[in-house]
Amino acid sequence: MKYINNIFTIENCSINKVVEKFETPIFCYSQKKIKENISNFKKNFKSFSPIICFSTKSNSNLEILKEIKRNGLGADVVSKGELMIALKAGISSKKIVFSGVGKTRSELIYAIEKNILLINCESKSEILEIERIAKLKKKKVDIGIRLNPNTDAKTLKQISTGKKENKFGINEKTFIEVSRYIKESKFLNLKCLSVHIGSQILDHKPYQKMINVLDKLIKKMDFSFEYIDLGGGMGIDYKKDNKKFDFKKYNQIIKKFLVNHKSKIIFEPGRSIIGNTAILVSKILYIKENSKKDFIILDAAMNDFMRPALYGAKHKIIPLKKINKITNKTYDFVGPICETTDKFLSTTKFQKLNEKDYIIICDVGAYGTSLSSNYNIRPKPAEILIKGSRINVIKKRQKLKDLI
Question: Quick one: CATH architecture of 31-274?
Fold first, then answer.
């Protein structure tokens, strides 16, 4: 993704051509970048060849999941719908892990029937429910238990999942109690110790603390887990300040851990695979001038891309076409929805913009379309996958007549 002759280009496709052919807002993905990210992730951990289960919640587009499958990844799912779409994409059931704190009986029955790799349980009640279903079906079900390690991931509080005040996982005392119960059960196999401390983590140190907790617990239990599921959460460089996650140090931490624990590692990456593979292209509808700043009113809104409104997340915005006129005015990039939170970014020293120009919101591949909604009865945007110079529509724009 770069500028060629001052026009933003993905692979061999000018985004000018995209806006000529399609309406905005529109999500555009790079197939090459997806493949590159998967390849780099595998290389970073090739010394112990983990099972990589893509976090389906980060992006559940069927065609994207087919790309994920073609590149050898499994899936981490958190609902029956995600499990169904992962299977439809061709992902093997033996590469699927089912996570989440509130799985319904219907979801558990479906997962058990599909013989997935693991159901990662997050409470004693869930374990008992699985046992009841397994008994009815006369099956022995492979499960994991998710530990809450009380580790601060130093990330946004809305996406922190590993502290004791978070709803995820169970504490060490309960973990040991339920593991003893599972060992005596005729219908449950305890296969995995699972943990996930949060998302958009850029420092390896919280992972070191998390691994230390796992190491002590396993030694205390004197139990050999077939799998250790370390979750995901590795962050990407949204701010473009070259602050990147140090995969090399994380790899060293895990290798040291595996010297004493001969388990297969499972990862559940989402953002680090798909986050920087996509952009959202939007048209400037109006520019509302103000003495202190100009409001750049876009045709994209918080229903199309929710992260800034939901988390206060900051995504870099760039012009589709570069010019050499820079303004010192403050620009507030906002959407048309009647909410003050319908705002993407406030910035200064941007190039001079005009109504009907196009802008690009960067790094929207993760939690972009998957968090989008029909708020204000607004149709969801189209999604395209660019392969070289070819444009493939991987989701059509919704039509109002289908919504109403």
Answer: Alpha-Beta Barrel (3.20)
